[in-house]
User: Fold this.
Amino acid sequence: GHMNTIDLLLRGEYITLDALLKATGLAGSGGAAKAMVAEGRVQVDGRDELRKTCKIRTGQVVAVTGTRVRVMADPDAPPA
Assistant:
């Protein structure tokens, strides 16, 4: 099947998994994001991730049914 790919530009050092799901629109709310993770519907780098506030950093890939989110460094973000 065809996978949708979303590129998320990361401004900080990391984003928590629930915040990423909400930021990309994959979850309609923070509560929905937490439920998706708790139900085992979210993979990080190909592995099931059950920690709602798992830190996602540049270069990691988050997958939910049919959609992949590539986390990339924001070229406009100030250097750390």
